[in-house]
Structures are given as structure tokens and as C-alpha cells.
Amino acid sequence: QEYDKISKKSMEEAISSETSGDFEALLLAIATCARDTQDYFAEVLYVSMKGLGTNDDQLVRTVVSRCEVDMVEIKQCYQQRRGKSLEAAIESDCSGNYKRFLLALIRE
Fold it and tell me: Which residues lie below 8 Å from residue 71, measured CB to CB, with a gap of 6+?
């Protein structure tokens, strides 16, 4: 936020204009996460379940790493951004014991 005050563009715009490829993606992820951690992880969860199939590694890694840290806030961000609860997304995208495991981790 301080960078935005003294610069004519946001940190993300500066990164995009000065870098490219995987390095750009890495720096953008760091900047986005630093700006709003819960919103960043809500987006990671959405991307892991959108479209056909599920990126199971990304979904499990995110849920397990955040469930005891800030999952309540991440669920709120997810609901606000997507108009659907994270629980509902997992319910519709996963099944069996895998679904029950994920739901148990995200519940308060």
C-alpha cells in the first residue's frame, strides 16, 4: 500500500510491466498474498476446484496449511467473492471420504 502511494502504479502493475513468465507469476503471488492473505487463499481454493476436475494437490495443501490459521476468514472471503460457500464448493466438487476429510478440516 505504501508503494501505491508513492508510485503511479500498483505493485502488481509494476511487477507485470518489469517481469514475465514464471518469475512474474511468483512475484504476483507474493504481492497478492502480502496485500490480502485470506483473499489470496480464497482464490487459490477456487482455482483448485474450477472447471473439469480438481487440482487435488493444491486443494489439500491449501486446506491443510490454513485450517488452523485463518480458515474462518478465508471462508468469508470465498463466500463474498463467489456468492457460494466453500463448503458448498467442496460438496459439489469432491466425494466420499475425501470430501468428508476436507469438510471436517474447514469446519469451525
Answer: 63, 105, 106
What's the pLDDT at 102?
Answer: 98
Neighbours of 28 (CB within 10 A): 15
Determine the Cα–Cα distance for residues 38 and 20; give it in Å rounded to an integer: 25
d(CA 101, CA 85) in angstroms, rounded, equals 17
pLDDT in tens, 1-25: 688 888 888 899 999 999 999 999 9
SS3 29: helix
Q: Give the contacts of 21 (CB within 8 A, at least 6 positions apart).
A: none
